[in-house]
Amino acid sequence: MLTRLKTQVPLFSMNSYTKLGEKLKLSGLSLASTHSHVIRLGRHNSKMAVCIAVIAKENYPLFIRSVPVQNELKFHYTVHTSLDVVEEKISAVGKAMADQRELYLGLLYPTEDYKVYGYVTNSKVKFVIVVDSSNTSLRDNEIRSMFRKLHNSFTDVMCNPFYNPGDTIQSKAFDSIVSAMMVQAS
Amino acid sequence: MSIPDYMQCAEDHQTVLVVVQPVGIVPEDEFFRIYKRITSVAQVSIRDSQRNLYIRYRHHYLPENNEWGDFQTHRKVVGLISVTTCGSAKEWPQTSDRFHCQKDVFGATLYDSRLLVFGLQGEIAEQQRTDVAFYPSYDDCPDVEKRVEDFVESIFIVLESKRLDRATDKSGDKIPLLCVPFEKKDFVGLDTDSRHYKKCCQGRMRKHVGDLCLQAGMLQDALVHYHMAVELLRSVNDFLWLGAALEGLCSASVIFHYPGGTAGKASGREPSLSLMSFFPSPLSLSPPSGALTANGISADTSSEIGRAKNCLGPEDIIEKYKESISYYGKYKNAGVIELEACVKAVRVLAIQKRVMEASEFLQNAVYINLGQLSEEEKIQRYSILSELYHLIGFHRKSAFFKRVAAMQCVAPTIPEPGWRACYKLLLETLPGYSLCLDPKDFSKGSHRGWAAVQVRLLHELVYASRRMGNPGLSVRHLSFLLQTMLDLLSDQEKKEVTQSLENYTSKCPGGMEVLTLPDGLKLPPVPLSKLPIVRSVKLLDLPVSLRPHKQKGLLENNLSSKSPFIYSPIIMHTRGEERTKKIEFRWVQGDVCEVQLMVYNPMPFELRVEHMGLLTSGVEFEALPAALSLPAESGLYPVTLVGVPRTAGNININGYHTSVFGVTSDCLLDGLPSVRTSGCVVEVIPSLPRLQLSTSLPRSAHPLRPSKEELSSSVSVQLFNGETQQLTITLENIGSEDLETLEVTSKTCNTKEKLFGEFLSWDLEEAVSQLPLKPGQSVTLTVNVKVRLDFSGGENLLQDLNDDGISVTGLPISSPLRQVLKPRAETKALGSESSKTDYNHVKTLEAVMTFKYSGGAGKVEGYYRHLSLGVHVDVEPSVFFTRVSTLPATRTRQCHLLLDVFNSTEHELMVSANNNQDLVLHPSECQRMAIQVAKFDFHTLPQPDQEAVRYTNPKLLEEERLHAQASMISSTLGITWNIISFDGEASVEGVLNQLVLEHLQLAPLQWDVVVNGKPCDCDIIADCKVGDAVPLEVKLTNRSKNAVGPFALTVVPFQDYQNGVQNYDLQDAVTFIGSNTFYIDTVKPTENSVCMGALLFLYTGDFYLNIKFQDDSAGQGKELPPSWFGLPSVHIKALEVRPLSEHH
């Protein structure tokens, strides 16, 4: 709604943090940039996600993978903050009709660089897909089908008798499904 | 207008702005005290009208913001209150001038002003002035509030007049065009007569009047004016003012719908304000809630209806806000207005609980560009975003922005980074990342949170606290990081974290105290219970020799009175009790106690743990800390922690203490559910003495075989059977208490072997006489070790040695001592080695000597200790008796015992017995030895008392009897052997069988034959004279238990020619006086009977009397054994009566 209003010069050009991070790194602790680094990636293959995360019912990550591996923490923050919206959406719908609730939550929030989409299974496991906001060709249906694929693969993981629910996902099959959906790091 | 007031909310539109400022030098705290009192007058109800006036006070306001006062009148400074200190009348003119200068700053917009002068007394202060109030001091100004109220009322009057003024002049004069600062140049040269321009002017004026109405408390009128303004402005596309009109409409509606206000709790915003005071920032104070009182609304009902009509619904409010913001967005210079509108809308949405929409407004607010912002402004902006996100329940977003604000505080562009503020802001983000700095909370909950961001945050906290110059905090945060995130750190990170932890602790060692931050936040201690990880805690018993025991008699009733049942299969304890469960064994005050921990090191490098000790309660305990070094990723590793309890009582092992990387931790077991323990409470009893035992014999290499009880020490010795060895035991008191009592007992174990006599014997008297034994003193005790075992088991193998068929008959053998040395036995023994070794085997004898001792306070409580000494003796066979038999001796009261003595040693030995000559035996030689012994009267042996007889097994009783008899025989015989320097006893006990015993026993019928007044036996020759009557007396004493008889005895005389011929035809030589047959009537037990007769020898010569026995009781009772009738044969020598014959 409001996004149509205007796109001004981003306020969060956090170059200063990056410098701080470097400074901290020198002192033995690595404090990486915390917010949107303007690294625009995946232009060449714009149909794909840049980050995919699976989050447990208790809101800790079961799986997270992002394409610019060197800046993974940024996506951790992006996904983590998106949980606010996910929770809000679940609780808003949950009261009225928990049964008919659609698993797909739609766009959670847009940042200047990315769009964050959410999906919640009936067991309150959350899937979050982050795509580049410059990627306009991506349709809602495509996002939905990505989530469906992800959900199916996750179900397979859960069916593995050797998988302990609540542990981080280390399944190769799941990993390959995720890889297929993601922008290949160039 | 560049600085937004983030604190604004919708209801601020109905307030009038008053600036309160100091003039000249005013102490800050005094100023704020007065300021606070002034701001308490935030709402004034105006007399006559039932309206309220709301005042917003600022102590700092930019004049450029004031320029927007026409746009939104609540931005206009309408009142000024100056506070000043004036010491003397001399200063007064200067002060007055200053006040006027200040007035000029806001001059254009001011409705009224006041000056509060403090400290001035005298002439000037006397004069009554409305615009100036004089007070003697800051403490003495009781009517400040009253003054302010008057001031507000005067503002109201101006406001009301302006409102009326503007509201009425709708027609006639030309309406001036109100405009915002940046518009001014746009209107230069514009056609002021155009319809468009006029409408524009009208619309803007309507909007302005609406503002004034709202401020003057006329909500209804304001709504009407706003609606009109919206219509007018929409028609001329005056977007900026249209936005303002819409916002005014929204504000008025919000004020109507939410009389409680939208600002939320003032206290909720306070902390961030105080934080902001780090940077110079406008301090805002919004009016207290309850902006619209009930009587204000219910003034007249007609307006109520109108209001409802004009007022926007909750949905509409948001729609209009959106519209308004989108109009503002068209103007770059109205960024601040837009931002503030967003904030106001968010607050309204938060009240409406429309979180998603609120987040969209906020998202928009993030992107509003206000041009070049200073660092402080950035921080302020992020902080307010964080707060607003918090307001709508987006805690993670809130934490994110707070963290960004924190980072901004220390941005490299800031010359003096605010690490303190950064740290404080970071701490506030903790809840957003579901992180709590109490490790107890962390270990409890199953919530894990987002580890990656948590680790990052902790790192930042560590860094910020270090830069703040508080290494103590860094240490605490690093400890927390290590403790809670250990599993998530990579090996490299573990190394780094521990390295920096060591660096910090070198400056400030970490401890267990609670760190309190200046703002009162407490950082609980972080015990590093994972460095190393403890898996189990086990209390160890004292070593066997030091264990205390309770005196039996003093044993209290141990049965717990919890249950009325003696035994119940239902175990009543729960898991929780397990930890507090009391342990069976006891510790002793003053003695070193041990606790074993199983630990392991989860780190990828060697872990040095220093000062690892026990934490206890209940008893004064001296923990003796240990240092250990655990290899990288070690497996379970046992660690024994020791300590000495200094007082008695129940001790509870609560946990342990460690020092790792310079951080000391007290790890309590209560907080470590993964630690297995079998109870942590143990009783400490008062101190007892300690004895050390040493012996003259060498220590035993091999422990006792059936070692059911643990031994303090043991000795071993090798002895020949029958040998006696002296063992000297030295007991030294190595404790600190006096030894007061000492008891010694012994117990022979593995009694498969038949043992004769006392194995161990000692005399304690001398040792006991030396008690009490002071610490350091010692006492000695001599113990005789005597082995007498039965080695006769091999007799069957030696069957051939004594197959000469010596039978036990009653027949006398004239030569009793017969050597039965048979050479063939020797050859046989040599020929078959195996058979030799078979009976040559070594037997083992083991016993445990127990030394019970006690003393000191422990003795009073009834405790003692015991030492046990195992005595292990390998017994080699010396001599043994392969066969035993008896031969009757010449005397009826005696007999010959024939013993086949076998020398099983490899040495020549000599056997001797009482009243007998020595016998020399070569190795493996067997000889028969005959010993003449008086028959035994076993009746003289002490009889077991009746009580004992009744309760013991008859078989056992019999055995006991036999044993007593055997030992009597053995001691009478006194057979000893001697090998050069060794000597020992040989016992016949084992070889005596029933038959032999019977022969050795005196017959129960005792016969005494007396000839001529002289008792006769086989080898005694009775003399008598020919021709004299020789009296013969036979006396029977019955010692059996039954009555015997009657018997008949016939005396037959005969002569033995010593050539095998016996002449019984002696009618001529011997004649009986009376009958030669005696009759003995029944003799009752213990009675006797005597028969008398007489003989007359007619010739000299050697005569024998054969007393034949004839049992007359035949048929009446059982046969009595023939041995019972062992009557001696009587040898009488009849001599010539020489003197008599001479006489003839």
What report would you give on this structure?
The complex is a heterodimer of chains A (186) and B (1144). Chain A is of the alpha+beta class and 186 residues long. Chain A has 4 helices and 5 strands. The longest helix of chain A has 23 residues, at 72-94. The two termini of chain A are 34 Å apart. Mean pLDDT of chain A is 72; it is low at 1-46. In chain B, the strands form 10 sheets. In chain B, strands 1, 2, 3, 4, 5, 6 and 7 form a 7-stranded mixed sheet that branches. In chain B, strands 12, 14, 16, 18, 19 and 21 form a 6-stranded mixed sheet that branches. Chain B is α+β, with helices and mostly antiparallel strands. The chains are: A alpha+beta (186), B alpha+beta (1144). At the A-B interface, helix 1 and helix 2 of A face helix 12, helix 14, helix 16, helix 19 and helix 21 of B.
Strand order of the largest sheet of chain A: 2-1-5-4-3
Ends distance of chain B = 188 Å
Overall outline of chain B: rod-shaped
Mean pLDDT of chain A: 72
Mean pLDDT of chain B: 77
Shape of chain A: globular
Number of E strands of chain A: 5
Oligomerization state: heterodimer
Low-pLDDT stretches of chain B = 265-305, 554-561, 794-839, 1140-1144
Largest interface: A-B, 46 and 48 residues
* Number of β-strand runs of chain B: 47
Q: Characterize the largest beta sheet of chain B: strand count, sense, and whether it forms a barrel.
A: 7 strands, mixed
Largest sheet report of chain A: 5 strands, antiparallel
- Proportion in helices of chain A: 25-40%
Could you tell me how far the N terminus lies from the C terminus of chain A, measured between alpha carbons in angstroms?
34 Å
Number of separate helices of chain B:
30
Family (chain B): Belongs to the NIBP family.
Subcellular location (chain B): Golgi apparatus
Pfam families (chain B): Ig_TRAPPC9-Trs120_1st (PF26254), Ig_TRAPPC9-Trs120_2nd (PF26280), Ig_TRAPPC9-Trs120_3rd (PF26282), Ig_TRAPPC9-Trs120_4th (PF26283), TPR_TRAPPC9-Trs120 (PF26251), TRAPPC9-Trs120 (PF08626)
Domain Trs120/TRAPPC9 N-terminal (chain B): 187-259
